[in-house]
Amino acid sequence: MSIRLRDLLENAGGSVPPAIFTPPVLSSISPATGVVNTAATVSCNGSGFTPSSVVLVNGVARPTTFVSTTQVRVTFTPSSATTYPLVVRNGTLSSASKTFTATVSGAEVFDPGAATVAEVIDYVDAHPDETQAVLDAEEAGKNRSTLVTALEERLA
Question: What is the rounded CA–CA span in Å between residue 74 and residue 121?
Answer without folding.
Answer: 37
